[in-house]
Specification:
2 copies of one chain form a homodimer. In chain A, strands 1, 2, 3, 4, 5, 6, 7 and 8 form an 8-stranded mixed beta sheet that branches. The first copy, chain A, has a two-stranded antiparallel ribbon with strand order 9-10. A two-stranded antiparallel sheet of chain A has the order 12-13. The first copy, chain A, is built from 6 helices and 17 strands. Chain A is of the alpha+beta class. In chain A, 48% of the residues are buried. Chain A is elongated and about 65 Å long. At the A-B interface, helix 2, strand 7, strand 9, strand 11 and helix 4 of A face helix 2, strand 9, strand 11, helix 4 and strand 12 of B. Strand 11 of chain A pairs antiparallel with strand 11 of chain B, so a sheet runs across the interface.
Amino acid sequence: MAKSTAMFGPVPGIRPGHEFASRLELWGAGVHRQTQAGISARQGEGAESIVLSGGYEDDEDLGDTILYTGRGGRSAESQQQIADQTLTGANAELARNVLLGLPVRVTRKVTEGSRSFYRYAGLYRIVRYWAESGRSGHRVWRFQLEALPELAESSAAGPATSQPTPLGLVQAPAAGYGPAPRRAASVLRLVRDTAVTRQVKTLYDYHCQVCQTRLSSPAGPYAEAAHVQPLGAPHHGPDVLANVLCLCPNHHVLFDYGSFAVADSGELLGLPGRLLVAPRHPIGPEFLAYHRTRFYEPQL
Amino acid sequence: MAKSTAMFGPVPGIRPGHEFASRLELWGAGVHRQTQAGISARQGEGAESIVLSGGYEDDEDLGDTILYTGRGGRSAESQQQIADQTLTGANAELARNVLLGLPVRVTRKVTEGSRSFYRYAGLYRIVRYWAESGRSGHRVWRFQLEALPELAESSAAGPATSQPTPLGLVQAPAAGYGPAPRRAASVLRLVRDTAVTRQVKTLYDYHCQVCQTRLSSPAGPYAEAAHVQPLGAPHHGPDVLANVLCLCPNHHVLFDYGSFAVADSGELLGLPGRLLVAPRHPIGPEFLAYHRTRFYEPQL
């Protein structure tokens, strides 16, 4: 990983759809500041850009959604996955984007007949990461990227206060920080509200199942419902009581980001103590196992 | 407030732009289940719909953004604000929508020449609430509404798993809960990431300034930066170090929702103790005062 300061966000003058003849041209434009590696990241700062070149057998490019496979464990000769990946190096930096809400520039390698070139796809948000067993049987880290709506150049160079767009995204002002203008997207913590999530909050009267905290505000108590196996693609967890926990925001963050997990016995892994479980709340062991194997990473 | 179960979300068959000749017709369609009141809310459940009829001198209708004034304190004769509003009754229910992420149906009264009718505007998310001194000098509660993108009817009736849209919003499945299908939007906790918010996290090494908690995950430490005077319209707080705090998610929620505030001395109001303040972090008393007067509501 390079030592210079990371540059996040759009590169002035480069719009989605812009084509580059080669990796060197892409590098020269500042879109992807690595000439060979697929991930351009700065240690401790996050990942600023990736290039999708079809090299990883587990990548899935669905357009606005990309399931991106982390780095490492591949054979240099066969390009096959021959060992487990770890959440270190560039993979840890991709995960850091999730925590910090940093956008990543995405470029695709395009092959048309005998001609290959690179097309800038725009900014994506990395919404989640997890580990799973790849096609090879080895453990790979997966990163779910979602396309961010394009921000107009005029607003990107805009006034000193942030401009929320109708999408609730914020174009941060280019502040005096580092050598290059850096702009950032927002962290959108998506906390789903459904009948089931309301049910679990009521069941625990808004107490956290980990720490028993109950946050109280002038508009009433506040808790968050955490889906154990996440809703929506690609996890497709069900929206049922057996798949949700009632947590305070702190433990929700820690659960989603894999700081702790729950054993089938209710014992916490990564934290001392046990989960508080109401008699009328039969939590599905299959969901707990899904979370443990994909999201939980014991810390050294 | 009526006693029946609240019905949130879209009314089948009614798309934005649908026109109704009268309040009675609006009531009959199930869009606004009150024949006179501007807010239709159910005690303890939240507000399901509002009608903007131009009755409140402090309302501001900007299209996709609406600054809506709470109920109460008006003279029945003059319609002028003659007393302070309180965060009770329907106003408390509007605030509950913020906490629970519940969408609200919005209908506008339209007057064209001598003809008046009602036009359904669609679903809005209530993103924030605060108190301020209205034009009359009396205290009013203000609710900031943002238009939600329309969800296609087909996906609204869709499969049993939630479908994230490109906007990160989720169409929750219509679960068996209450007599009518109820669909809900997501709570999007917007946590802004800018150079300044990264700076404040570094300054405190990700420790919460209220409780000194430092959340740790496999991808690194996690904290949130809270703008004291919020960024963006209508508050226009600046994105400067003097206007941000480093908080854990729990205290961020409590701060935004007015459970506590900070005195100029650094003493906490609504919570015991004092704010931890680093020597290189001169917090602006004008921002603390802005937050105290608008967001803080001492709990009984």
